[in-house]
Amino acid sequence: SQELEQSPQSLxxxxxxxxxxxxxxxxxxxxxxxxxxxYGEGLIFLMMLQKGGEEKSHEKITAKLDExxxxxxxxITASQPSHAGIYxxxxxxxxxxxxxxxxxxxxxxxxxHP
Amino acid sequence: DVKVTQxxxxxxxxxxxxxxxxxxxxxxxxxxxxxxxxxxLGLRLIYFSYDVKMKEKGDIPEGYSVSREKKERFSLILxxxxxxxxxxxxxxxxxxxxxxxxxxxxxxxxxxVT
Lengths: 114, 114
What we know:
Order of helices and strands of chain A: EEEEEEEEEEE
Helix content of chain A: under 10%
Strand content of chain B: over 45%
Structural class of chain B: mainly beta
Largest interface: A-B, 31 and 32 residues
Largest sheet of chain B: 7 strands, mixed
Mean pLDDT of chain B: 92
Structural class of chain A: mainly beta
Order of helices and strands of chain B: EEEEEEEEEEE
Largest sheet of chain A: 6 strands, mixed
Low-confidence stretches of chain A: none
Number of helices of chain B: 0
Distance between the termini of chain B: 37 Å
Shape of chain B: globular
Shape of chain A: globular
Oligomer: heterodimer
Number of helices of chain A: 0
């Protein structure tokens, strides 16, 4: 099983709808990152969360890290076709090396129908 | 802007061939990483390097080796390519600890081994 679980694995929404993607671990998360990937391309950094209870927003995307630092959510408001892609969460898990090993979830494929 | 470049976007090799994947970053970053990405599995770390000539095994190093002779360049080597190494390979770099600094990704190399 994955150390970092994302849900759902895929999501199809109509343009204008809100949606949420979750990222969960049984271990404490240090440095939780959200990335977006267009199919067949590299990862684009969206946001980083470090503190329990932290919330950040950029345009119509909001990411939160829970108080226990074991779960993060990514929320998109009024989705647009430009939001389509693969969303990945990555984190340094408790017990990892200090040189920066990131563990990634398996990704969520988002499709937005116009 | 940080730029991470990879030598090829697409590569087709035959089983048993020796394959070199090159990655170059232009921001003087200490840390460099090689991942492979497969559907349903997310990104998995193959090797990383925190300094010139230094390397650490990631989660799936078997069948791979790496070389970092200069700070800006990190090479991934498949000594004898096999069909199960068909995958998307992503290189990344970061200036410091993953709990504090994001990783910057290259565009990826889609390798097919026939």
